[in-house]
Amino acid sequence: GIISNWTKIPSPLFKKVVFVLIDALRDDFVFGSKGKQFMPYTTQVVEKGTSYSFISEAKPPTVTMPRIKALMTGSIPGFIDVIVNLNSPALLDDNLIWQAKTAGKRIIFYGDDTWVKLFPKHFVEYDGTTSFFVSDFTEVDDNVTRHLDRVLKREDWDLLILHYLGLDHIGHMTGPNSPLVGPKLREMDNILKKIHISLLSKEEAPLPNLLVVCGDHGMSETGSHGGSSEGEIHTPLLFISSAFEKRNGPLTQPELVQQTDLASTLAVGLGLPISRNSVGKLILPVVGGKTMREQLRFVHLNGFQLSRLLQENTPAYEKDPGYEHFKIAEKSHGNWIKLYLEGNNSEILLNLGKKVLKQYLKALKTLSSSLSKQVAQYDMYSMMVGTVIIMEVLLLLLLSLPKALSSRAEFEVPLSSPLFSLLFYLMCLILCAVHVIVCTSAESLCYFCSMSWLTAVGVMMLVSALMCSILSAIAKIFENSRLPLKNPVVSSSSWSEIDVLILAGTIGHVLSLGASSFIEEEHQTWYFLINTLCLALCQELCRNNFLLKECDPQHSTTMKQNFDSIGEASDCKNIDIPPAGNSKLGKTTSSAEFLKGSDKWISLASPWIILICCRLLRSLNQTGVQWAHRPDFGHWLTSSEHKSELSFLAAVSLLMIFFLVQRRCSLVSKIAMALGLLGVYSYRAAIGNVIFPWQHDSKDISK
């Protein structure tokens, strides 16, 4: 009209919004066979009710906190959010919750306390549940549901957020095909039914209510999440409201949308500004029931916000295809408005409106895709420089390790010779040249390139110095290995097979922690490493104890002289003799008694006893994702019919603790410890885990 209203935010489309987030809800739990079997009400609403169904695609990392950020800000969190997922700080980015609070909306939240940490002062009422008791499938959801009946009757809220964790916990413990999944989905279906019926009964003209159901991430076939498999990134997204048209035909495959699209869609639905850093695009069917003018207004708002974000992050934004499409659509929109204001209600106006809408949607798709790619771009050059420095320091430490672990505990890094070598200056020149080439040709912003040239040269000198030191250390090792050893027994800088095995095992274990599946099954790594180490120790002990027996007399005399020299050296210079379990001949009490006595047989038996104990421990408790459901000795003991066996084992163990420790205790300590251990057993008997020898019936005992 006469006065432009384009700077004003459109009025809200819905009065009350209930946002139900079911943690780890996979798309096939709703749209697949499990949905039809265990979620009949939701399936009926999806197929025949007034709803719109989508499959929402989440970007990795698929863990809770980054996904909540994506849902509420519309931006794509980085991998650093995996670390802060454990201790979520307050979210400072522009987001839907902050916008709703600023607009005077009253928000109530019940569920995962990650929300309370992210939005500490935004809720008028909240009750957070912790997500770290993974074995809790029931209470964690009951603590959310117990508030529902009371809240749904009240009128003093505009946005209700519920975050259910039970399904995620079941996934972690037993996997997606567990018999526990069905009852949990049925429980969620009943909750959604209760909310939907309540919202319908409370509706008043002109604004309807809206129920949104989604998952933050899915779960893999083993029940875990964090990666980018289809089961982990695809979740259902349902919009249920009386404002939508009722479905008649059969359910087709739901359309794929991005998880970040929800923030823009909910912002428009609640009459709020779209979050500043949102890369999501409006899900058009949700506003499809409005007039053409309103629909064009909504997509223009979204396009304007995305183009502004592009301008802030891209110097050559005008050449971006998404920005060009948006400007063309905006011009066409202006022409449509002119026709509309002239009072033209012909079919030409409708067709032109549809054409402009298509142009806007194309622009939104291109802009969103372009911005998402920019967010996912990492500063590879700076990351590579940092990685090179870390790897050089690590390699230098590894090369210095044998001397550092020797009896003299030397830690020597040669610096003077490398710093004055020709190689050092050549490397500095080459690296500086590479830095200039990379920084002058880089299109995107680079942290390392933004540093001062003096700092950059200093970093290059550090890289060169470390590299020269490594080469110098390697050369020294080769030089020492060619020299004949005067006393091979005392030499402590050479590496034994056990040393190499321990080092390789440690590095292998550290590398295995780079994958979530290896973290979940970490015990398998330990089983393998301990068994391997025990077998290697056994072989080493056999070689030391038996092969040396077959040595000729001359060799024995030489060894005797070596032992004598070791004894003299240790007496004079107080040098530590390397202990057993090493390839340097083990315990050296004296040259005559080395291969005699019971110590030899105890040392030979030790690895096999440890292996047997480890095998028993493995069968005591099945753990991890893969085998947690398998029967084990722990379950056998804790079952009610084997209470007497458990009682006997517990009593024997407590008595052994007493007899092993009491020798070093005073009389008062002995009495105190005996009473304490008796108290331990009595407590376990009182709660019903074990039985007293004189107890025949559970009624005989008093707590």
UniProtKB/TrEMBL annotation:
Subcellular location: Endoplasmic reticulum membrane
Protein's UniProt keywords contain Translocase: no
Origin: domain of life: Eukaryota
Keyword Oxidoreductase: no
Keyword tags: Endoplasmic reticulum, GPI-anchor biosynthesis, Membrane, Transferase, Transmembrane, Transmembrane helix
Chain ranges passing through the membrane: 380-399, 419-438, 450-478, 646-662, 674-694
Any single biological process term in GO: GPI anchor biosynthetic process
Pathway: Glycolipid biosynthesis; glycosylphosphatidylinositol-anchor biosynthesis
MF GO annotations: CP2 mannose-ethanolamine phosphotransferase activity
Membrane topology field: Multi-pass membrane protein
Gene3D superfamilies in alphabetical order: Alkaline Phosphatase, subunit A (3.40.720.10)
Gene Ontology terms: cellular component: endoplasmic reticulum membrane
PANTHER family assigned: GPI ETHANOLAMINE PHOSPHATE TRANSFERASE 2, PHOSPHATIDYLINOSITOL GLYCAN-RELATED
Protein family membership: Belongs to the PIGG/PIGN/PIGO family. PIGG subfamily.
Full protein name: PIGG transferase
